[in-house]
Design a protein that fits this description.
Elements: H1 8-21, H2 26-30, H3 38-59, E1 64-68, H4 76-80, E2 84-89, H5 92-102, E3 107-111, E4 125-129, H6 130-133, E5 134-135, E6 141-142, E7 156-162, H7 167-171, E8 175-179, E9 184-188, E10 194-198, H8 204-213, E11 216-222, E12 227-234
Parallel strand pairs: 1-2, 1-4, 2-3, 4-7
Antiparallel strand pairs: 5-6, 7-12, 8-9, 9-10, 11-12
């Protein structure tokens, strides 16, 4: 029987994975260790990462920003330059890294399972990784329904995820697709431990359509090799 992304045990295992990965998480961003693929491909990755950063800077989230699955804080600093950030993550370990990097000024840290947490205020904008907030079909859902990112009608959203053609990361053993239709994969840590997580590789057209069904009007973009990202607003 195929695994289900609605399995509470799977969601708990995904949280355990990010807790265990906290100390090595940024090796992926920095192209270190098993993510080091030589100067040429490292340069391509870092250039595309900067492309997304520039898009986020142009987006200019607003005065009150909700960051879902904030992790170790790689994006929190960019968001905090535009206003106050509420950084939510299920992992105390990744939040500790985030807090050491950015401190308490301008950032509020909340430890919570995103699928069980509800915003306590309205936000001008939300930022998140898709893999952390969306569950696969049927039906396509997650924490992006009305009110779940604390955004009023007209509120803004910016999101990011990886593309399936990120062959260097795949080759490094970071994850192995088990069932793309269901959306469950296996990821490994540096010490060889493996965990199941929810992960779907989206196509831009399909993602735009499905987010419209959840009340978002978005424009989805791709970098050449590594990233899918986009921005938009809640329908009035």
């Amino acid at each position: 029987m195929a695994e289900s992304p609605d399995d509470p045990g799977l969601i708990a295992e995904q949280i355990d994975y990010y807790r265990a990965r906290a100390g090595e998480y940024e090796e992926w961003y920095l192209r270190q260790g098993r993510y080091d693929h030589g100067p040429e491909w490292n340069g391509v990755f870092l250039a595309e990462l900067e492309e997304v950063h520039q898009a986020l800077r142009r987006f200019g989230p607003g005065c009150q920003v909700l960051e879902l699955a904030s992790g170790t804080g790689w994006w929190t600093g960019t968001l905090a330059r535009t206003g106050a950030v509420t950084a939510v993550d299920a992992s105390a370990e990744t939040l500790a890294h985030n807090r050491r990097r950015h401190g308490e000024a301008g950032v509020r840290y909340v430890q919570a399972n995103l699928f069980e947490w509800s915003p306590d205020r309205l936000y001008d904008a939300g930022f998140f990784w898709l893999l952390a907030v969306l569950r696969p079909a049927p039906p396509f859902r997650g924490v992006l329904g009305p009110g779940q990112v604390g955004a009023p009608p007209g509120g803004q959203v910016f999101f990011i995820d990886t593309l399936a053609r990120d062959i260097q990361t795949l080759a490094a053993g970071n994850h192995h697709r088990q069932d793309q239709e269901v959306g469950v994969t296996v990821r490994c840590l540096n010490d060889g431990r493996s965990y199941r997580i929810i992960k779907v590789f989206y196509q831009p057209e399909e993602l735009s359509r499905r987010l419209r069904e959840l009340g978002w009007r978005v424009e989805v973009r791709e970098t050449r090799h590594y990233f899918l990202y986009g921005s938009g607003s809640r329908a009035e």
